[in-house]
Write a structure and sequence with these properties.
rod-shaped, 2 domains, about 230 residues, four-stranded mixed beta sheet, Immunoglobulin-like, about 0% helix
Amino acid sequence: MIVLVALGLCSACGAPAPSRVRVALPVVFAAERDPGEPLAGVRVHVAGEDRGVTGEDGTLRVIIDEAEGARLAIAAECPAGHRSAEVADEIVVRAVESLRREEPRLHYPIRCAPTERRVALLVRTGGEADLPVRVAGREVARTDAAGAAQVVLAMAPGSAFRVTLGTEGDERLRPVDPVRAFTVGDRDEIVVLDQHFEHVRGRSGRRPTPEPEPEVEVAPEPPSEPTRPPERLN
C-alpha cells in the first residue's frame, strides 16, 4: 500500500489551511524492464479506470482527483514477453501543506521483468576451427578460423543449460566432446566458455608404442697388468 500525499502551498504563514474535501494530485507512473531501462506499453488502471499506457520514456502522467482518505486500487498490465507487474495493490490519498512552490508529483514505480533473458555465449578454443557448438543437443554455431564462436540465446531466468563442443571431426582432440553447464540469471548477461584442447598422436587417439632402442654392447675392460712387488734394497 502507498499513501498519496497532496502537497499544497501555504497561503499565509501561521494561518490554518482550509479543509480540503477533494485532492487533485499529479502522479507519474514509471515502468521499467530492469533498473534503469524504461518500458513502454504498460497499461495502468486506477480504481478500475483505464488511465492509459506508458510512453517511450516508460512514464505515464495522470491527475488523481479524489476525496482525502480515499483508497484506490492500482493495477498494471505488462506487454507481451514480460511477467506480471510488480506494483503496490492500493494507494491512500492524504493532503498536507507545503512551503515549496514547485508543483509536487508522486512517482509510482512499476516493474515488468522479462519472461526470457538474452544470454550471449562466447566460445574460445585457442584456434580449433569448425567445431560444432551445441546447446541441449542442438547445434547453434561453429567455431571460425580463429577457433571462436558467438551466439545469442533466449532462455527463461533460472533455467540451466549445457554447452557441448563436438570433437568428432578430429579424433586427435582431447578432451572428447567437453561439456560445460550454466544457469541463466535474472539479467541479460555474457557467458564465456574457454576450452583448451590437446592433440594426441595417432588417429586412434593412443600414442603408438615406442620402438625399443637397440642394445649397446659394452666392451669389457682390458685386464690390468699384475702388480710387481717392490724390489728389496740390500
